[in-house]
Amino acid sequence: MLALGVALCMNGALAQTQTPTPDNYPNRPIRILAPFAAGGTGDTVARVLAPRLTETWGQQIIIENRPGAGGVIGMEAARYLPPDGYNYVVISNSTAASEAIYPKLNYDLRRDFFPINIVASSPMLIAVNAKVDADNIGQMLSLMQRDPGRRAYGSCGVGSAYHLAMELLKFESGLSIQHVPYKGCSPAIVDAISGQIDVVIGPPSAMVQHIRSGKLRSIAVTFNHRASSAPSVPTIAESGGAKLAAFSVDNWYGFMAPISAPRDNASKFGGEVNRVLGLPAVREQLALAGIDVRLGNASAFMDAYLADLRQFKRVVEAANIKPE
């Protein structure tokens, strides 16, 4: 009887410590690690979702920001997240840019994590100073080619997805224009407005007010279809000519979990995220921040990641881009 009592106690203890089944998931707070600064697009996606998930589950959603080195610092921290189905990381194509540009990383995206879903897109926008005589990417390329190497564009930083997208445009079009890296998108936009540089590439949310005021002129979005948050702006493929007919780089966002996390819990998390993103009020809230909903499963997530990784590696090698 004593042995039976001990066994029952041990079984009870194990039942309390084992990972909850999907039926009682979640029964405690969920953490989302964001390898971005607070206020950035990836952070915004997580913070728009958080209160809706809390409303559904009655559990707190904790957003933890770990910015730095193009997301590398956050991804290194994410590698050590408990694999319990209560810890997730939201990533963007900046993670593909990091893998393309850094020779050695302390994490392996495919070994250390598994994809859940792709959830959002914040298109990269190319704009010019208001005095630049160009209304689309074709006109901008023609103008810049008349003055090769003497014009300049600004990006949000060396090795950022914005930088690599613009270098890919240069590579595929033969454009000769100097790169001026900035520590963040805001100072690049300020210098484009003042005329210190001719062209800037960045998120629509940071540029839309300056475009509306006439200080900047939008030229193109880099994805292969127009953004719902900037529907009047053509794609590069639309106006860049035959050489650029297949050009596409999207600034996408999605969720991953530690590789040994319970798949059932991750599936329930991803399913609820997708449901919330289908709500009109949530879509409208994201659109105001220049973010489009882009839903895709784990397979779509990896397709997007590997497509960007391939083209980023190609341009990093061709342009001999090195990390700072």
How confident is the prediction overall: mean pLDDT?
A: 90
- Number of DSSP strand runs: 11
Principal-axes geometry comes out as globular
Low-confidence stretches: 1-21
Distance between the termini: 68 Å
Q: Specify the CATH class of the largest domain.
A: Alpha Beta
Q: What kind of sheet is the major sheet?
A: 6 strands, mixed
Structural domains: how many: 2
CATH superfamily of the largest domain: Bordetella uptake gene, domain 1
Total helical segments: 13
CA gyration radius, whole angstroms? 22 Å
Topology, pairings included?
Layout: H1 2-17, E1 30-34, H2 41-57, E2 61-65, H3 72-78, E3 87-92, H4 94-101, H5 109-112, E4 113-121, E5 125-129, H6 137-145, E6 152-155, H7 161-173, E7 178-181, H8 185-194, E8 199-202, H9 204-212, E9 216-221, H10 236-239, E10 252-258, H11 263-277, H12 280-288, E11 292-296, H13 298-319
Parallel strand pairs: 1-2, 1-3, 6-7, 6-8
Antiparallel strand pairs: 3-10, 4-10, 4-11, 5-8, 5-9
Helix pairs in contact: 4-13, 7-13
Give your account of this protein's structure.
- 44% of the residues lie in helices and 19% in strands.
- By secondary structure, it is an alpha/beta fold.
- The strands form two sheets. Strands 2-1-3-10-4-11 form a six-stranded mixed β-sheet, with helices on both faces. Strands 7-6-8-5-9 form a five-stranded mixed β-sheet, with helices on both faces.
Please sum up the structure shown.
The protein has 324 residues and is α/β, with parallel strands linked by helices.
